[in-house]
Amino acid sequence: MTVTVTTSYIRPTLLHSCAWAATAKEAAFRIDKPPAYVRTSRVFALDPGAAGVVRDLAAMPWHDTRFIPAFDAGTLADELRDADLAMMIATADDGAAAAHAIGHACWERGITTAGVVLDLGGLGLRRAATEAVAALRPHARVLLVTEDRGDIVEILGEVGA
User: Fold this and answer.
1) What three-state secondary structure class fits 115?
2) Which of 31, 45, 115, 151 could pair covalently with 51 via S-S, beta carbons 3.0-4.6 A apart?
3) Are strands 142-146 and 85-90 parallel, antiparallel or unpaired?
4) Which of 68, 126, 61 is nearest to 95 (CA)?
5) Which residues fall within 8 angstroms of residue 102, CB to CB, at 6 or more apart?
6) Superkingdom, according to UniProt (predicted)?
7) Helix (H) or strand (E) holding 21
């Protein structure tokens, strides 16, 4: 009996891999079309600073996105009904309990979660933003820390919100 063993070599991700991604050759593999379908999204503000951001976002045109500037545990099941994506926005760690409740409810329902920590100080990652990351990290599959509100608009647009 002959046994053949094959091994495959997976090329590691190197520091210069990001530079390769910016080349014209790699750009040919990018998806430049809008998402194939519209997601039913919910955007939750986790603290007072995020509430203003969520209100501003709600004034923009969206497909099927509901913006929740104040978390209410009593209405969470209704808010998440038919949702495909739940995005949580934080500027401080005030919303740790809300992030836990939303994250757990999404996990039970199989809803994708995303988190954005918006550093409103504009001076690098402030202590409040650092604490928000720690509060949100266990409850968001994807987490972005940014100083630019426009990044949230871009993310929502890319996922078809």
Assistant:
1) strand
2) 45
3) unpaired
4) 68
5) 44, 71, 76, 86, 88, 113, 139
6) Bacteria
7) helix 17-21
Closest CA to 45 of 88, 77, 103, 92: 88
> pLDDT (tens digit, 9 = 90+) per residue, 11-67?
554 555 555 556 777 666 666 666 566 678 999 999 998 999 999 999 999 888 999
**Distance, CA of 84 to CA of 63 (rounded, Å):** 13
**124 Cβ contact partners less than 8 Å away, ≥ 6 residues apart:** none
Residue 4 has a CB neighbour count (10 Å cut-off) of 4
- For the chain, the distance separating the N- and C-terminal CA atoms, rounded to the nearest angstrom, is 57
Give the distance from CA 14 to its chain's centroid. Answer: 25
CA dihedral 67, 144, 142, 127 (to 10 degrees): -100
Tell me the pTM: 0.74
What's the one-letter identity of residue 104? Answer: H
Q: Are 90 and 69 in contact (CB under 8 A)?
A: no
Contact 45, 69 (CB under 8 A): yes
| pLDDT value, residue 1 | 54
